[in-house]
Amino acid sequence: MMATTLVPPRRPAPPVALAVESLAVAGRRLNRLRQAPGRLIGIIMNPLVSMIVLGYLFQGSLSVTGGSDYQTYMFAGVAAQVGLAGIGPTAVAVAADLRGGLVDRFRSLPIARPSVLLGHTLGDLAVGLIGLAVVTALGVLFGWRPERGPLAVFAGFALLAVFMYAMLWVGVLLGLFSRNMETINVVAGLVTVLLSFLSNAFQSVDRLPSWLRPIADWNPVSAVVTRTRELWGNPTATGGSFPGEHASLAVAISLSAVFVVTVLLSLRRFRTAAS
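^ that's the sequence the OP posted. Answer follows.
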């Protein structure tokens, strides 16, 4: 009679072990940046092109309600684009690990499965913060100035970091559901463009068609950009909508929804994809 060996179920990793394993995966992700710095360049170039094209080439065609400086107005939107630009690289990296068998090698190690995805997001968050620092330096060079104290300015950048991390989980989810690189690049580019321009990042929402305004009002980018402008003392144009007039509440609702949905779906999909 053949004996049956029972494999005990995998127990949840202690928080300390999960943190260490996640940081190890993040370190691997950062090490690859030295070999392929194009990922960082790509994250910087998208906002830089927006600053040059919209802030200089088309500055005569764009204006801010009240006659405020447009370059100062648009910088919060440019900074938010850094977070959006990280969606594609994260999705590609997750899909490549699944296709290349790296996840199978991780499964043979005594590590918690969530640490793989956490490591990806933490490593890419560090890359995104570097990109945000570079874009901020360029923004200062192009004329952007905050009008509030250091604590408020820091709070604005902290909010952008939270937004960036939420967008990285959007990239994780995209990479788990679509392992085709061409599809990922197309979808990530489309998401970046739609979230950027269906928002108040570069123009007031009240200049959009009436049927698009509710979408733009509740776009997480609009909430984050509005609250960041308020913290920095930069010009704002809320359009009088509820999300615009209550930016902090809109940020909490929209980012919480994005984060909870993408994390739960990503972890569930990863368990089935790696089983």
